[in-house]
Sequence to fold (562 residues):
Amino acid sequence: MLRVQNLTKVFNHNTVNERVALDNVSLTLDAGDFVTVIGGNGAGKSTLLNCVAGLYPPDAGSIFIDDANVTRLPEYRRAAYLGRVFQDPMMGTAADMNIEENLALAYRRGRPRGLRWGISAGERVLYRQMLETLDLGLETRMQSKVGLLSGGQRQALTLLMATLHKPRLLLLDEHTAALDPKTARKVLELSDRFIQDGSLTTMMVTHNMRDAIRHGNRLIMMSGGSIAVDVSGEEKSRLTVEDLLKMFEQARGTEEEIPDRMILG
Amino acid sequence: MEQILLGALSLGLLWSVMTIGVYITFRILSIADMTVEGTITLGAAVTARVISLGASPWLGLLLAIVAGLLAGLITGLLHTKLGIPALLSGILTMIALFSINLRVMTKANISLLRMPTVYSPLMALGLDKTWAVIVLGGLCAALVISLLYWFFGTEIGSAIRATGANPNMVRAQGIHTDTTIILGLMISNALVGISGSLIAQSQNYADLQMGTGAIVIGLASMIIGEVLFGKRNFFLRFLSMVLGSITYRIIIALVLKMGMPSDDLKLFTAITVVFALSLPKIKDLINGRLRPRKGGV
Fold:
C-alpha cells in the first residue's frame, strides 16, 4: 500500500545548520496496517510523514502509493491518495467557511472541480448522516462557521473530511497533541473507529507512548533519522511503556532527549 | 445639494466594481494587490484608445476586461511561479503598467469629448449624463454582484475562497493553490479594468495618473461598507461593497463642500483607512487588553 525506499532528507545542506532528518529510511505498509510512529524531537517522524504527504521532495529515495511512484508528485496532486489530519486544529479546516462547505471541499478531493454548484442537496443529506456518527451535535450546525468550533470538534471534522472518500493512506500527524486529555481520548477513539470501519491503512505520529502502544497493529520508533524499532502483531500487543523507554534509551542519539510529555502521556 | 449627492452616487457606482475587486484580493485571498493602481488606468487607457480610433465603446469595455485579466495574470505568475511576495508582485506589475499605459494611449491623456461612449444610447433616450451613468453603473454593479455570487458558490469559487482562509488545507484537499490565487487575481483585476473603462467614459478622458491612490480608495470604500452594512452572507457582502463605495463618495463630497481643499483628499482618505484598519488595535487599547497578536498582513 505504501512503500518508502531509501528515503533521505537533509535540511540546510552545506551549512553549519545541516541536519540529516531522514537517513536512508525504508518502510513498507501492507493494506490495512495501522502504524504508530514514535520518537524524540528531531527523530524524523514528522519529516517522514511530510515527505509522504509531499510537502517537500526528498533528497534521495522514492515513495510508492499503490505501486504508483509519487516521489515527484506535488502535494496537491498527491492529495488524491491521502487523508490528512494535522497537529494544529486550525490547519485542517477553513475557519471562515461553514461546516458543510468544508466537507464539500474535502468531498471533491481527487476529482475535477468545475463550475457546478459547490455543494448539492444530496451531499447535505450524506454530510448530516456522517456528522451524526461523530456524536458531537455538529449535524444541527452545518451552516456554522468552523472557526466557532472547539479544537476537538475541528479535529473530529478534519478526521471526517480525511475519510469522506476512503483514502489509500491516512496520515495522522500528532493530531491529538494540542487537545486536552479528555478530548484527545475522544478524538483517538473516533480515529480508531474510522480506521477499523474503513480498514484504512494508517500512519499515526504521536508523542504519547501509551497511545502508540494502545493503538494500531504496528509500532515504529524513530531515532536520528532512521527506524530504530519496528514491532508488530503479538510482540507489539505485549509492549509496555517501560519496554519502550528502555528501547528508546538504547536507540537514541546523543542529541535527543526524552521529552517529558512522552513519558507522562 | 441634490446634484452633489447624485454626483456622489454615480461616482460611487462606477468605483464600486473596483471596490469589489479589491475585496476579492484583500479579504478573500488575503493579498494586498497593488496591481489595482495600474489596472484602473489600463482599463481607462485601452477604452479611450479604442474609442478614439473610432471603434465601438463596447469593444473598448470588452478589451479593458481582457487587459485587466492579463494584468492579474502577470501579478499572479510573479507571485506563485516566481515566488515573489504578493505585495511586491503587485507593485512590479503596477510600475510596468505605467509604461504600458503610456504606450496604449501614446500620450499622457486622451480626451473623449463628443465621442460615443457606453452612456450614449441612454443619453439618446433623454437621460442626462449623471443619470445615464447611474443607470448603467447600477446595472453593471448588479450584474457583477450576481455573477460573482454564483461564481463563488461553485466548486472553483469555493476553492478560491478556501485558499485565502487556509492554503495548507486547500492543498491537502487536492487543490493547486497557485491556480486559485492566479484566478482570483485575474477576476479582481478584470473588475478593476471595468471600473477604469466606465470612469474614463463618464469623465470623458483617460489620464495616465488617474490610478494613483486607487487601492486606498478601494480599501476605504471596502471598510466603510463592512462597518456600516455588515458582512453576513456573501451576497450582502458584495452589496455592502457597492454601498460602501457610494458612502465614501458622499463623505468626500460633504467634506469638500465643508471647505476641505481638494488637494488634501488623498491625505484624508489615507487617514480614514489607517483609522479603520487599526480599529481592532484601538479597541484592544481601550479595553486594556494589550497583548501580542499572531500574524498580520
Chain B has one domain: 2-211. The mean pLDDT of chain B is 93.
